[in-house]
Amino acid sequence: MSATHGLSSINCTSCGAGLSVLGGGRVRSHVCGYCGSVLDTQDNYKVLDSIGKRNHPSSPVQIGMTLTLDGVLFTVIGTLGVVEQYGSSTWRWVEHQIYSPTHGYLWLNFEDGNLTFTRKIRDYNMGHWLSPSTVERAETPPVRAYQGERYKYYETSMTQIDFMEGEFNWVPKLGERKEVVSLLGPHAMLSLVRSATEREVELTRLLPRAETAADLGIEERALGHAEPHPLTPFKQISEEPAIRKALLVTMVVALLLGLVFWMSGGQRVLSTPDIPLASLPESYEFEIDNTAQLVRVQFDTAFQNQWAELAAEIVGPDGQPVIAGARTISYYSGRSGGESWSEGSRRGSFLFRPTEPGTYRVRVEQLQGSSTDIGQFRVNVGQGKPVAFWLFWLAILSGLGFAGLIARRAAHASRRFAGSDWSDD
Amino acid sequence: MPRGALPDPIGATIDMSPIRLIIFAGCALALMGAAYLSYYGVGRESRDLASSTQSIRTGSSGSTGGGGFAAFGRIK
């Protein structure tokens, strides 16, 4: 007797319990869930070994359940309890062998409330194998490529079987060990698995909890609380690519337009020749016809290691003062410790909104300064002066929004590797 | 052509959902608003002693014609 299509159940040749036959013709062993006998399906279900009665590992997935992966219907045929120990820490998870008559044998894994799906891949370049000793010697986390995706080293583990039940396409043994080097890619985990007899490469994907649970016929809450998984996909906010693009374009346009406005002096209506400080106080007249925009009155000096406080009173066509104030202009520079330095500015300005067109007059006086007779300056007045303030603020806000979206994605990428055992030491 | 898609001049389609339209329109409005405020310098006048504000140094109001900067000899 051997496992063949059409045979739906057999009786355990050790204890006589009824066992479902679900796994197709390439099943090599069947572990009785009642007495723990390991039966050889290729040799009349002869008893090969026994694991005895053991506690079933915790998993909501049961043998006989079905689920559809990538459009292919699979049946759960076996259950392995797997354990990893490192120091005083122990990690446990469950691997269910699943079977499809057309796609063969794969794995459905359950760990920390998450369901993952593992398949062996045959087209990985084995010349790029990664062993734990290579990882140990590496200066930076090793990286491998598969099908155009980049996989970065995540962890090395030594796994061990501590429970088995159901059908398998090989003969598992309690305590069977595997050395697994895992690398994390954008959508999957690449595992380089070395057992006592062979080397294999596996690809693991995280399955959506709710949909997979519904497909298996169980409630999502039966999976328990889901711990963060490195394969958890990044959750974009609604229309994130469009928002990112819009924020970036807004930032760039606002910045460029702001720079244009910032550099624009408006329409020049007064530009005096160099005025010696010693000639102050002095008055200058200029004509304004644009009352919609601001007028800028600017002092441009050629100060070098000098300061002065220049006061200005601007009087409108009606003889009323429009603005009166003072600007301290200070500019110092030199060399210190082999490096050039400078501080202050050679300019000072006033912005005002003219109330009516006509002739305006600015009277300039030096209030105080490092010198009253050395130094000179010019008065430049421009009307229709735009400012950059609001555009720069918009650029900052949209830039912060854009940076926030990028940072959110970067934080997720960083969190994915939070459980990695890589250490730079 | 997907719902909400607009034909473009080269025959392909631009997927412009209502939400995306709102996002792009919002950014365009913000840009236009900031450009308007900046062009006309709204709220950016110098905070110096203006004609309608009390002169700190003179203690008089410029609107009466008697105010102004102390240096100009208008102290009452």
Keywords:
heterodimer, A: 425 residues, alpha+beta, Jelly Rolls, eight-stranded antiparallel β-barrel, five-stranded antiparallel beta sheet, 25 strands, 46% strand, elongated, B: 76 residues, two-stranded antiparallel ribbon, 1 helix, rod-shaped, disordered N terminus, disordered C terminus
What's the SSE blueprint?
The complex is a heterodimer of chains A (425) and B (76).
Chain A: E1 9-11, E2 18-20, E3 29-31, E4 37-40, E5 46-50, E6 66-69, E7 72-86, E8 89-100, E9 104-111, E10 114-121, H1 132-137, E11 143-146, E12 149-168, E13 177-184, E14 189-194, E15 199-206, H2 209-216, H3 240-263, E16 267-271, E17 275-276, E18 282-288, E19 294-301, E20 306-315, E21 321-336, E22 339-345, E23 347-352, E24 358-369, E25 376-385, H4 389-416
Antiparallel strand pairs in A: 1-2, 3-4, 3-12, 4-5, 6-7, 7-8, 7-12, 8-9, 9-10, 10-15, 11-12, 12-13, 13-14, 14-15, 16-25, 17-25, 18-24, 19-23, 19-25, 20-21, 20-24, 21-22
Chain B: E1 5-7, E2 13-15, H1 18-39, E3 49-50
Antiparallel strand pairs in B: 1-2
Would you mind describing this structure in some detail?
The complex is a heterodimer of chains A (425) and B (76). Chain A has 425 residues and is an alpha+beta fold. Among the domains of chain A are: 54-223, no CATH class; 265-385, Jelly Rolls (Sandwich). Chain A is built from four helices and 25 strands. Chain A has helices spanning 132-137, 209-216, 240-263, 389-416, and strands at residues 9-11, 18-20, 29-31, 37-40, 46-50, 66-69, 72-86, 89-100, 104-111, 114-121, 143-146, 149-168, 177-184, 189-194, 199-206, 267-271, 275-276, 282-288, 294-301, 306-315, 321-336, 339-345, 347-352, 358-369, 376-385. Chain A has an eight-stranded antiparallel barrel with strand order 7-8-9-10-15-14-13-12. In chain A, strands 16, 17, 19, 23 and 25 form a five-stranded antiparallel sheet that branches. With 76 residues, chain B is of the alpha+beta class. Chain B has one helix and three strands, in the order ββαβ. Chain B has one helix spanning 18-39, and strands at 5-7, 13-15, 49-50. Chain B has a two-stranded antiparallel sheet. In chain B, strand 1 and strand 2 (13-15) form a beta hairpin. The model of chain B is unreliable at 1-5 and 51-76 (pLDDT under 50). The chains are: A alpha+beta (425), B alpha+beta (76).
